[in-house]
Design brief:
The chain has 267 residues and is of the alpha/beta class. It folds into two domains: 133 residues, serine acetyltransferase, domain 1, CATH 1.10.3130.10; 114 residues, 3 Solenoid (UDP N-Acetylglucosamine Acyltransferase, domain 1). Helices cover 44% and strands 15% of the residues. The protein is built from ten helices and 15 strands. A six-stranded mixed sheet has the order 3-6-9-12-14-15. Strands 1-4-7-10-13 form a five-stranded parallel sheet. The N terminus is likely disordered.
């Protein structure tokens, strides 16, 4: 006989694994019991746990955690794709980041994951026409996480932002699925133009630390941008670019650079 708990695990294996890892974390470090219970084990679903985590991180004297939780709950109920993307992000981080050993870690500790999920709620608010509230989410994410993603930007699923310090993503930027980027990446404009002015990043792209991609240019699928590069021109699919300004220096090195996370340029 299949128990309700087994059915839940089958339907939501990511959340089931997080629950198991949460209990293990408390067994290994009892001092974390209060935080792990309030953040994970107290909640009946990943939706409620994620809403709680975002709210506790972004709460301030200007906006209470309770109000922020209600906003997140509303967003998740209205758009299930937000939670599907969050689960894909957790799996991506666990697969690509050698410092991530549990699904639990992104939800509890990794500001890159937390900032992207806060962005997803802000993006939903933006699309609902609730622009001032979406700007509040952007502002607080920038203040708390050091990650500044405009709520109008379009970001896919399976995203890993490693370390996530000083990330900037502009208003008209588009980021595809299964993209990996490291700290200090900017997806920015080149001036004061107000129309479509930010990069379009294809699926499976790897963007190294400190890279700046500027202007309304297309970065082809499964390409690789070396650390510290300044990219001002379109990049074909499956190529590696490096330098200031960046130029093509070779092939991408593999069919999925964002998954391999190989940042060494072959000579």
């Amino acid at each position: 006989m299949v128990t309700p708990k087994a059915k839940l695990a089958e339907l939501d294996p990511v959340w089931d694994r997080i629950l198991r890892e949460a209990r293990l974390a408390i067994a290994e470090e009892p001092l974390l019991g209060g935080m792990v219970h309030s953040t994970i084990l107290h909640h009946p679903s990943m939706e409620r746990a994620l809403a709680y985590r975002i709210a506790m991180k972004l709460a301030s004297d200007e906006m209470s955690g309770q109000i922020l939780r209600e906003i997140c709950d509303e967003a998740f109920a209205a758009d299930p794709a937000i939670l599907a993307s969050a689960r894909a992000d957790i799996v991506a981080i666990n697969e690509r980041d050698p410092a991530c050993h549990r699904f639990l870690q992104p939800l509890l500790y990794f500001k890159g994951f937390q900032a992207v999920q806060a962005y997803r709620v802000g993006h939903w608010l933006w699309n609902e026409g609730r622009r001032d509230l979406s700007y509040f989410f952007q502002m607080r994410s920038s203040e708390v996480f050091g990650v500044d993603i405009h709520p109008a930007a379009k970001i896919g699923k399976g995203i890993m932002i490693d370390h996530a310090h000083s990330i900037v993503v502009g208003e008209t930027a588009v980021v595809g699925d299964n993209v990996s980027m490291l700290h200090s990446v900017t997806l920015g404009g080149t001036g004061k133009e107000e129309e479509d002015r930010h990069p379009k990043i294809g699926n499976g792209v790897l963007i190294g630390a400190g890279a700046k991609v500027l202007g309304n240019i297309e970065i082809g699928h499964c390409s690789r941008i070396a650390a510290g590069s300044v990219v001002l021109h379109p990049v074909p699919a499956c190529k590696t670019v490096a330098g200031v300004p960046a130029r093509i220096v070779g092939e991408a090195g593999c069919d999925q650079p964002a998954l391999r996370m190989d940042q060494i340029l072959g000579m």
